[in-house]
Amino acid sequence: MKFAVLSVSLCVAAAGVFAQTTSTEILGTVTDPAGASVPSAKVTLLRTATGQARETLTNQDGNYAFPLIEVGEYTVKVEREGFKTQEQRGITVQLQQKARVDFRMEIGATTETIEVVASGVALKTEDAAVGGNIDNKRVVELPLNGRNVATLAVLVPGVQFGIRMGLDGSGGFPIPGNGVAISANGQREVNQQVTLDGVIATEPRVNTAAFSPSIDALEEFKVQTSSYSAE
């Protein structure tokens, strides 16, 4: 199980954890009204919180990608001569998510703009990972006895405290209440893995994380329990 934690680029996982990777990205395909690919279209990615913008061009197949992005809300805009400019707002990207945002262009002038506001939950089609995301609202607002991030991890279905944390999460080895030892879907806690900036942060004997990252340093994190990628 992978338990990915973000902020200060920290990740923790039961059976595997990681921080920011190319898995956190926005990608998609741009096509014309007939469904044919639109190459060399200008695609602009705008991060709502900071106003930071990135640009790229679609390839010969009409595909584009923005890897290595931060979690948060984005706007994606597509421009191409002979087509109306299209813009999708309110795209929320979570940790380790590959958010697909496709566009079907309409014939017209680039001065004409079609705006779409994203709504609902985007269908996940880019990977088969199973797990759950603990967003910033829950990190900030839920009461957390002991301030151990593992207490939030057990909100994900199938995840529970490992023996080395005590079955109620109040125990702990070697430091009571400060370690991270969780299991998922029948796995043993020794199958977990924690990494910090890509470096393994668990001790080598039983894969226990002998520390708990400060809850104040976390933005959100993700627990992956099965079918995760080779990363």
Please, could you describe this protein's structure?
- This protein has helices at 136-141, 150-153, and strands at residues 2-6, 10-13, 25-31, 42-47, 53-57, 63-66, 72-79, 85-93, 98-100, 103-104, 113-117, 130-134, 159-161, 182-184, 193-196, 199-200, 220-226.
- With 231 residues, it is mainly β.
- Strands 5-4-7-8-11 form a five-stranded mixed sheet, with no helix packed on it. Strands 3, 6, 9 and 10 form a four-stranded mixed sheet that branches.
- Strand 7 and strand 8 (85-93) form a beta hairpin.
Question: Would you kindly provide a brief summary of this structure?
Answer:
This protein is mostly beta strands and 231 residues long. Helix content is 4%, strand content 35%. Mean pLDDT is 81; it is low at 4-22.
Name the descriptors.
2 domains; five-stranded mixed sheet; Immunoglobulin-like; mainly beta; four-stranded mixed sheet; 231 residues
Please write out the topology.
Elements: E1 2-6, E2 10-13, E3 25-31, E4 42-47, E5 53-57, E6 63-66, E7 72-79, E8 85-93, E9 98-100, E10 103-104, E11 113-117, E12 130-134, H1 136-141, H2 150-153, E13 159-161, E14 182-184, E15 193-196, E16 199-200, E17 220-226
Parallel strand pairs: 3-9, 3-10, 8-11
Antiparallel strand pairs: 1-17, 2-15, 3-6, 4-5, 4-7, 7-8, 12-17, 13-14, 15-16
